[in-house]
Every structure is written in structure tokens, then in C-alpha cells.
Amino acid sequence: MQEPTFLILTALATRPLHGYGIIQAVGELSDSEVRLRPGTLYGALDRLAEQGLIEVEREEAVDGRLRRYYRLTDGGAAVLTREVERLRRRAATAEAQLRDRGGIIPGLGRIAPTTP
């Protein structure tokens, strides 16, 4: 799963959001490292809706413009949960490799290599 998709699903995990709200949440979740443009976001939202991972919860008119709120489906939550677990396994593997190398592990500092 690509990082923008992961972040969109994560943004919708707690509450429904409209497009601009998703863009803001993704920026916050990524410490401003991922910046979604509207065209990219709406293409991703259409794709995620087609896959059944998100759905439109409601629509409302604001200043004459339609605002669509999206929510994570149960299937989307299951996919996000699996992705979180996959990323945890990858991070644990990287941490073990760094430990074996005697590298620096965030939060742990420099680690001496393990000796067999």
C-alpha cells in the first residue's frame, strides 16, 4: 500500500471527513511530509470507494458547493489493520538488522552488535 493511501485510510479511522479535512489530516499525520493535491486526493477517494474501503457518509451544501464526507468502512478498517501489522513486521526486521550491525535505533541510541 502506498503511503498516501495508508494516510488517507488512517485519517478516516476515527471520524468522517470531507476532502479538505482529509488533506489537512494527512499533512498532520505525516508531519507535513505528504501533501495531497485535490486532484490526487479525489482520484484516490474514487478508487478507495470502488474497492469498498471507504464510502460517502453524507453530503451537504456549504456556500453553494457540495461537500462530501467520507468514512472508513469495516472492510477498510480491516485492510488498514493488516497494513499496520505488515509495517510493524517490516520495522521490526529493520530494527533487528540495525541491531546486528551495531547501528543506531531511534529511541534506543547506538546498539552494539549481537554476538552469536
Number of domains: 1
How many helices in DSSP terms? Answer: 4
- Report on the biggest sheet: 3 strands, antiparallel
Low-confidence stretches: none
Number of strands: 5
Helix-and-strand structural type: alpha+beta
Structure in words:
The protein is an alpha+beta fold. It has one domain: Orthogonal Bundle (Arc Repressor Mutant, subunit A), CATH 1.10.10.10. The chain contains 4 helices and 5 strands. Strand 2 (54-62) and strand 3 (65-72) form a beta hairpin. The longest helix has 28 residues, at 74-101. The model has no long low-confidence stretch (mean pLDDT 90). Pfam families: PadR (PF03551). Residues 8-81 form the Transcription regulator PadR N-terminal domain.
Question: How are the elements arranged and paired?
Answer:
Blueprint: H1 3-11, E1 17-18, H2 19-29, H3 38-50, E2 54-62, E3 65-72, H4 74-101, E4 104-105, E5 109-110
Antiparallel strand pairs: 1-3, 2-3, 4-5
Helix pairs in contact: 1-2
Characterize this entry briefly.
The protein is α+β, with helices and mostly antiparallel strands and 116 residues long.
List keywords for this structure.
alpha+beta; Arc Repressor Mutant, subunit A; two-stranded antiparallel sheet; single chain; three-stranded antiparallel beta sheet; 116 residues; 5 strands
